[in-house]
Design goal:
Strand content: under 5%
Oligomer: single chain
Number of strands: 0
CATH topology: Na+/H+ antiporter like fold
Distance between the termini: 61 Å
Number of domains: 1
Order of helices and strands: HHHHHHHHHHHHHHHHH
Radius of gyration: 21 Å
Structural class: mainly alpha
Number of helices: 17
Shape: globular
């Protein structure tokens, strides 16, 4: 039967299944009072190797199909973070630097320290225990960003602090992971860390310079050219180049580059000309694939019962330390307690960033299969817990004003009228 379908038709059928399942699950999740992203991740688990395993249906014989879907999902997370940056202003983000720095730093140091100690307590080798701690320090803000957008609080103090804290988190985890791998592999630690830090500073400096001086001119030139959807194409090109540069030059996650690209475009006068197109492209195709692909990448059958107690301990440690570390950091930065815990909850998800760090450990032989299973269980639970927890923490009694609500935006149509 598989011979009847070319690799392209197999991909087309699976994408149709994924999109239909994602939209249906998102709708059902919203009807149940939960963020739609929760339903999309859960349906990904149902469609993945844990249960239905759509990558190995009878008509599928393409060996690259799973990789193709994963890569389309990676484009989805880039678009999601680009949109998050597009909805903010750099001035708003910089006003929350103290909150972001403290929440990001404590949100890494506390999980890393407790994760390291937990590994030693369970009899893990020193290197494996240290790697476990670094894995617990990672954060994937894409899940939280989508949830905050659904709750319409992305531009609140919590949302701005959360996005900034994620950048600090990314920098610290990359530095810790790179330094740790350099020591394990016998490389130079101090010189290597200084080089990595220098690359990050160079990337951030070039990104800011491009956003302030080059991009405004580039958008004006593009707007005058007789090109179909020229501004949308320019936005996609800049987003992809920033993503590549973030990893290749800065040694950071590509999603950080995409977020910075969105921030740069938010300052331009032509932002509105491409915003609708970006939203349609992202939420019509790529973002649902990304959320489903998170579930597709998890195989519950690989969770070993022999590692049950370790898995439970890792999950609890990951949830509590990130919540308390980032939340207390936000409080030290000046946020009220309620907003601090909201920010701490938003930092809990490990998502695709946690999977990337975990794969480094299994490829390098730093963790056993049982330990890897515990890490995967932690990533899954932390990702699923974050959206409903944020909704609960942002819920407030009726007729009670919320200090975390977005500032009201003027109605442009009324102004024109």
């Amino acid at each position: 039967m598989s011979a009847e379908f070319s690799p392209f038709l197999q991909l087309a059928i699976e994408l149709a299944i994924i999109l239909l399942a994602a939209k249906a699950a998102g709708y059902l999740s919203a009807r149940l009072g939960q963020p739609s992203v929760l339903g999309e991740i859960l349906v990904g688990i149902l469609l993945g190797p844990s249960l239905l395993d759509i990558a190995h249906l009878p008509f599928v014989d393409s060996t690259s199909l799973a990789d193709t879907i994963h890569e389309l999902g990676e484009l989805g997370v880039l678009l999601l973070m680009f949109i998050a940056g597009l909805e903010l202003h750099l001035g708003e983000l910089t006003r929350n630097t103290r909150v972001s720095a403290l929440a990001g730093a404590l949100g890494v140091l506390l999980p890393v320290g407790f994760g390291w100690g937990l590994g030693l307590m369970f009899g893990m080798e020193g290197e494996a225990a240290a790697f476990l701690g670094i894995t617990l320090g990672a954060t994937s803000v894409s899940i939280s960003a989508q949830t905050l957008m659904e709750l319409k609080v992305l531009r609140s103090r919590v949302g701005l602090g959360l996005l900034g804290a994620a950048v600090f988190d990314d920098v610290l985890v990359i530095l810790l992971l790179s330094g740790f791998m350099a020591i394990v592999e016998g490389g130079t630690s101090i010189a290597g860390l200084l080089l990595i830090l220098g690359r990050m500073v160079l990337f951030l400096g070039l990104s800011v310079a491009f956003g302030f001086w080059v991009l405004p001119w580039l958008t004006k030139v593009t707007a005058r050219l007789p090109i179909s959807q020229g501004m949308l194409s320019l936005a996609l090109i800049v987003m992809l180049v920033f993503g590549v540069a973030a990893e290749a030059l800065g040694g950071m996650a590509a999603i950080t580059g995409a977020f910075l690209a969105g921030l740069a475009f938010a300052r331009t006068h032509e932002k509105e000309r491409m915003e609708a197109g970006i939203h349609a492209l992202a939420y019509g195709l790529f973002v649902p694939i990304f959320f489903v692909s998170i579930g597709l990448s998890v195989n519950l059958r690989h969770l070993e019962l022999s590692a049950l107690w370790l898995t439970l301990a890792v999950i609890l440690t990951a949830l509590i330390t990130k919540f308390i570390g980032s939340g207390f950091g936000a409080r030290l930065g000046g946020l009220p307690w309620r907003e601090s815990w909201q920010l701490g909850a938003g930092m809990i998800s490990r998502g695709e960033v946690g999977l990337i760090v975990a794969n480094v450990g299994i490829v390098a032989g730093l963790v056993s299969q049982d330990e890897f299973s515990a890490i995967i269980g932690m990533i899954l639970v932390s990702t699923l817990v974050t959206p409903p927890l944020l909704r609960i923490l942002f819920r407030r009694p009726s007729n009670t004003p919320s200090r975390t609500e977005e500032p009201e935006q003027p109605d442009r149509k009324k102004e024109i009228a």
